[in-house]
């Protein structure tokens, strides 16, 4: 199942061996483009290292979520063990895998207080997949738990912002903290066909292209959607045949104290036509609406059409219940912010999101004022300013939930 490794992958595989020149390092980080072969080579490296250097020890194996860990790490790990004829025991309920005399404890780093579960552990090593998406507290605790003589920490990730702690406190201080760093590009994965490479490249634009495809640690600054074009991303005519054969969706961002937005979307298979918007700003109107009122408004907004799939903020439990009772067809929105913005940016760049110029004034006002949060950026976090972002949230829900081209799991692309 493993095909010949690239030179970079071989370095990742054998860096810890005596004579490599970097075997004294305690930390190892492989960062770079998505699909560049980081995870595969690191799993094998971690396995060889832990099995040949230790017996009867405990190790930490962590992913962004339990699901991502299973998909990205355990599946290839079990595949390798199978291929090499090495027996293993997966104790699912206990969250561990036993290989030989060593025990590998599995963690999802996304849970609140995930690092608490590490407390009290004495580990001989750790493996962190997609470490840039972990809370810092988890990484610090994980490193702190590796107190056995000769312990090492293996981490990999896709690049993030220029002020992310992995960049500033690990990569930039590599020599000082004893970190061996390998930077991967898609050339380091010999199994990627040009066609697949192309399709990954087409899945990103702007800052996400630079991070995920070029593998650069660069920050998102200024406008979230700098590729937005007032002409190319809008339309105005009243062509009565425009929506013929289109599927219809409503995208809903719920708010009571905050504005509540519905978008009326027609999908012709290529382009999302955002035909009109509903925007209730309770603060400006000085009146909050009940769920029943919102449901009535949505019914009117959709001209009574109950076949329209309503893509809705999954946390809007009360409105969801109200809509379901009234016979609406609901679909929970995927609401990962980073992925949603990345997906919307591609659609905007290729002009396959078009917004009705007259019917959607609030959407258009929001998209021009939708900015990355500068203060958060300096703390190393990348997120948009949380103001006037309601139509923007509805857009993210729409695009990510219906995105068939690229599926990245909860975290960023694998
Ligand atoms: N040497 C190899 N042999 C077989 N498959 C490989 C090899 N290197 C990479 N791949 C495949 O390429 C894809 C991306 O590799 P992965 O390690 O997951 O990349 P990354 O972690 O950098 O996103 C995976 O499907 C993986 O199985
Ligand atoms: Mg990976």
Provide tags for this entry:
single chain, 414 residues, alpha/beta, Rossmann fold, Nucleotidyltransferase, domain 5, 8-stranded mixed beta sheet, elongated, binds adenosine-5'-diphosphate, binds magnesium ion
Q: What's the number of helices?
A: 15
Low-pLDDT windows of residues = 406-414
The amount of beta strand, in percent, is: 15-25%
For the CA atoms, what is the radius of gyration? 24 Å
Number of domains: 2
Could you tell me the number of beta strands?
15
Tell me the span between the first and last alpha carbons.
19 Å
Structural class comes to alpha/beta
**Bound small-molecule species:** adenosine-5'-diphosphate, magnesium ion
Query: Biggest sheet, open or closed, and with what strands and sense?
Result: 8 strands, mixed
The CATH class of the largest domain: Alpha Beta
In CATH terms, what is the architecture of the largest domain? 3-Layer(aba) Sandwich
Overall spatial form: elongated
CATH topology of the largest domain: Rossmann fold
State the CATH superfamily name of the largest domain: P-loop containing nucleotide triphosphate hydrolases
Strand order of the largest sheet: 3-4-5-2-6-7-1-8
Helix content: 25-40%
Tell me, rounded to a whole number, the average pLDDT: 94
Order of helices and strands: HEHEHEEEEHEHHEHHEEEEHHEHEHEHHH
């Amino acid at each position: 199942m493993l095909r010949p490794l690239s030179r970079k992958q071989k370095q990742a595989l054998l860096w810890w061996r005596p004579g490599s020149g970097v075997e004294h390092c305690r930390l190892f980080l492989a960062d770079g483009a998505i699909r560049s072969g980081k995870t595969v080579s690191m799993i094998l490296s971690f396995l060889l290292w832990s099995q040949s250097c230790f017996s009867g020890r405990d190790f930490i194996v962590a992913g962004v979520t339990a699901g991502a860990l299973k998909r990205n790490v355990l599946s290839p790990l079990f595949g390798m063990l199978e291929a090499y004829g090495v027996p293993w025991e997966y104790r699912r309920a206990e969250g561990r895998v036993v290989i030989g005399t060593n025990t590998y404890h599995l963690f999802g780093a996304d849970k609140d207080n995930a690092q608490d579960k590490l407390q009290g552990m004495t580990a001989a090593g750790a493996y962190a997949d997609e470490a840039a998406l972990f809370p810092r507290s988890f990484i610090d605790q994980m490193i702190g738990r590796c107190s056995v003589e000769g312990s090492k920490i293996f981490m990999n990730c896709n690049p993030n912002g220029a002020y992310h702690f992995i960049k500033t406190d690990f990569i930039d201080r590599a020599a000082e903290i004893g970190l061996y760093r390998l930077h991967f590009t898609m050339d380091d994965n010999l199994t990627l066909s040009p066609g697949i490479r192309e399709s990954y490249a087409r899945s990103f634009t702007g800052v996400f292209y630079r991070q995920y495809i070029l593998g650069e640690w660069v920050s998102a600054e200024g406008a979230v959607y700098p590729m937005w074009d007032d002409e190319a991303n809008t339309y105005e005519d009243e062509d009565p045949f425009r929506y013929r054969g289109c599927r219809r969706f409503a995208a809903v961002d719920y708010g009571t104290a905050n504005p509540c937005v519905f978008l009326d979307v027609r999908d012709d298979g290529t382009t999302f036509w955002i035909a009109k918007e509903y925007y209730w700003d309770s603060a400006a109107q000085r009146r909050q609406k009940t769920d029943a009122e919102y449901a009535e408004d949505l019914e009117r907004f959709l001209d009574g059409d109950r076949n329209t799939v309503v893509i809705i903020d999954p946390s809007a439990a009360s409105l969801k219940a109200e809509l379901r009772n009234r016979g609406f067809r609901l679909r929970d929105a995927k609401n990962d912010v980073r992925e949603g913005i990345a997906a919307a940016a591609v659609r905007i760049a290729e002009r396959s999101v078009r917004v009705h110029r007259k019917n959607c004034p609030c959407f258009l006002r929001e998209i021009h004022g939708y900015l990355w949060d500068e203060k958060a950026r300096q703390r190393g976090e990348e997120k948009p300013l949380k103001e006037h972002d309601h139509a923007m949230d509805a857009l993210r829900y729409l695009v990510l939930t219906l995105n068939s081209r690229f599926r990245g799991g909860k975290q960023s692309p694998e």
